[in-house]
Write a structure and sequence with these properties.
Helices cover 89% and strands 0% of the residues. It is built from 1 helix and no strands.
Length: 81
């Protein structure tokens, strides 16, 4: 009977060791994911700013092109009043 209890204790020790290893690996993965998240967040923020700036520039450019095209099509030509 003592031999059976010893085997159970050994098995429980193995299981506990494996669970501890899984918990440690999970913590490491969590830290890695947080690091990746910080880097991706910075890239996303820069991309959002670049997108907003380029969108504004394109909008102004299209507005200018439209205004010049209207003047030209109306026969006044660019810069003529």
């Amino acid at each position: 009977m003592a031999d059976m209890n010893d085997q159970h204790l050994l098995l429980l020790g193995e299981i506990k060791g494996k669970v501890d290893a899984l918990v440690d690996a999970d913590k490491t993965r969590g830290e890695v994911l947080q690091s990746i998240d910080k880097r991706v967040r910075a890239v996303e923020q820069k991309a959002a700013v670049a997108g907003a700036v380029s969108g504004g520039v394109v909008s102004v450019g299209i507005g200018l092109i439209t205004a010049v095209a209207r003047e030209w099509l109306s026969g006044r030509g660019p810069g003529q009043s």
